[in-house]
Amino acid sequence: MSSAAATWRGLGDRIRELPRPVVWAIGAAVLVLLILLPFAYQPASGFIDDCVTALAYVVMALGLNIVVGFAGLLDLGYVAFYAIGAYVIGWYGSGFFAAIAGGKGLHVWAESAGALPGIHFNFLIVLVVAAVYAALAGMIIGLPTLRLRGDYIAIVTLAFGEITRVFAINGADIHPFGKDYPLTLGRQGITPIDPIDLPFVKQFDPLNLRPWYWFALAMVLVVLFVNFRLRDSRLGRAWIALREDEVAAASMGVPLVKTKLKAYATGAAFGGMSGAFLASYLNTVNADQFEFSFSIFVLAMIILGGLGSIWGVVLGAVALSFINSRLIPDVLNGVPHKVGLNFDLTELSFGIFGFLLVIMMVLRPEGLLPERRRQIELTEGVGGDETLYEARA
Amino acid sequence: MEAASVPARTTRTASLDAARRLVSHYGLIAVLMILPVAYGIHDLRVDGDLSRLGENLKDGVSNGAIWALVAIGYTLVYGIIELINFAHGEVFMLGSFVSFSFWSALGLTLASKGAGLLFGLLLTLIVAMVACGGLNVMIERVAYRPLRNAPKLAPLITAVGFSFILQNVGLEWLGGSQRGVDDLIKAQNDLFTIGGVHITHADVLAVAVTVPLVALLAWFVTRTRLGKAMRATAQDPEAARLMGVNVDTTISLTFLIGGMMAGAAGLIYALYQTTIWFFQGFQAGLIAFTAAVMGGIGNIQGAVLGGLIIGCIQQISDNRIGGEWTPAIVFAYLVLIMVFKPQGLLGEETREAG
Amino acid sequence: MTDRLAAERSARTGTPAASGDREATSTILQAVAVSKIFGGLVAVDGVDFEIPRRSIVSIIGPNGAGKTTFFNMLTGLYKPSAGRIGFDGRDITARRPDVITSLGMARTFQNIRLFATMTALENVMVGQHARMKAGLFASVLRLPRVRQEEREVREKARETLEYVGLRPSLLDQMAANLSYGDQRRVEIARALASDPKLLLLDEPTAGMNPQESARLTQFMETLRRERGLTILLIEHDMKVVMGVSDRVTVLDHGEKIAEGDPDEVRADKRVVEAYLGRQEGR
User: Fold this and answer.
1) What is the third-level CATH fold of C2-104+196-281?
2) What value of ipTM does the predicted structure carry?
């Protein structure tokens, strides 16, 4: 374990020490490889399928990383934003509201939807709406936690995640806008969902996964860009200051409420975007997708990679989603039978993630590709937990 | 800002403060009364008596007794190391599993009666308590102790991780679906009826196990040397260490007691509900945590009171609003309490820094 | 507005609004009958207090006299239980700490509270937060004005750290890895970076040797001379207090028991009692 860890650390440092142009060149080469990757596989190959999911998870993990990694607010209800994003496309990109406009449907830039009933917005609009709704939800969930200490924040966000799920499950019985317009379809699920439909491009096709892959890759690049820009900005410094010492941060002129809410909103927006994408990709929005364990799945990604470390989080998300989709079902599944145990490892996946959380926190809390700051904080235990409101009370 | 306005402003603040204190003291109680009072009025108008509400509250109290036992575990642990022991709900779940497996091994069945049944169940209770207490101590050793000096986020994350591990243990043990267990005590049979409210075997069992356990715990914490060490450590670990208290042992002891209570709760739950499954701990954990916060975290009486109240809310909601909404209602209470009265019903105002 | 407050206060208490014949034309901060009660315990009891512009004023008192509590009310960390606080022409009673900072008050802490995993430079950049404008979207797009602002802020942080005497090689060192003295320097630089009119130092010489204390004393004078700062000091080291202060206020058990120039305070009977009485008690 420790020698592997040392190798990782060495790798990270070595990359950091390389001259800038070299780093850029390597980055560009990797990017070209990633763009060309789908051509090495069949258009509907299982591997590309897993890659698309992994990239969507990377977007979510990077979003959660802003809240947990940068601002230090432990959010255990991140699945709520996945749900909100997914329902946004369920509402605005499917036949779900079939009664709208007298059954003729409501279409905005959605040529491929023809004259289908229901609301059909262009996916780019859906993406923006999903981000906005999720960001608003993030702020609403964030508001009551502003005065709470870290562990209470965890519980309140968890509770909000569960409340969201209860609403998703029972939403078929809620009709806020008249009896033809329920909130959700509960466990039955809203399906089909409009495939992504972009201007100037043929509508995405469930049998050709390449465009999905490229779109997901583009989302990751955008989110990465935003993450880096924010980290090195006034706001990013304020987040880290807040995480380190709330009292000192406030005394230095950092407005706590605004700064925390911005973290919640930004993180949530990415979750919403990824949720809308995944719903379109999976072609269904089902209340059972929004379990608490999904929040933990995403949390495990950022812990594995390294809290606050952007590249670490990418690594963690890719690794965990492949462990989830490939390693556990394909490789490990045979193992228990070989050693005479009689159970199915796919059932165990969340136990494995739990195990990973414990192991990482105890043995290598800073993650595989640590952020330099966090490494110090987590291994030497600096930084205070006192909140301003405790001091103020 | 004229000086003349200074005293006027002060009196206004004073009356405002008084109002705020009033709301803070009684607001939560008022909010908690909404459901029972509303349905009480409803019953009086529709049925002409309160027996339906009484039935709800009775079920609430006996269910709440289970939550109270689980809540004690949260409250004790939080009181001493300020950690939400996320895995506690899973310890409770495994309490049910251990109980079921053990009484099956003993050969207790529907046919068991009398002294044999009583003795068998007592033995099961002890086994469940010991197993869960031991498990809880082990969790602390493995997952929390190495992180005692790390930022608070770290043990919280391992706690979540452990809860998933234990959930999977449960999943592998008895499978992924609800498992019916033998109705050993004929749980839903009436023992007697008061004022139209049916008291069942299960109700009596829940109260008969919980009351002595809580009394014993209260005696232990206030009267014995170890109990006093526990309270001292909860108040100020550093001072307790200086006074010669072995803090590590005390923390282990706290986890042991919390786990034992959860084990007992697990047995009652299995006998009471007659179905158990690996996911029961997640919900139970959150409900019990809500109870602990409601009562005032760190406060044992508070945990019991919170457990009973949350039990009643849950029963009223299950029976009147629909079980599918109960989690949302319980969590809504949790959020409200956390935001408006984080010190709970019986908790003290947080100590001031400075 | 605050001048009227000051006049009213001085009429009530019978002390002049500004002591001495300094050039100070007005007061920068006044507190009127400020109290703080912690669950029945009176930590600060009806303290009247003011600071003339461009002066160096100290608050002294035995441990637990309520000095830091008083400080925390001035900077907004605590809400006063009663009383009003005016700063630079505004009522700041119970305002949020970040608002007070943006109005021009900055502080250091008794037990240094740097952002441990940020570099010295980043710490000082955070100190300028209230003086910056870049919002979320502008930062993502890194608009030209944001780029410009970042450059200026970085440059100013560097200058400020140089001004307080941090070695340039330590600029990118993480705060947690700095020596105690350097951490003190960075903390003062972080406070200075917010362009304060009033600087509050909470026991800045704690843990310093006499030479370092003397240097800091000199530095305070420099700050006043070169930057026109007003300084409020909490200090245990009497040598520092007597050497640098224009005026000294003595707190004991939350009450103001004496006020005046250093010589007057030194001669005050109640002050001697407060200190000696305590020492005998030990």
Assistant:
1) Rossmann fold (3.40.50)
2) 0.86
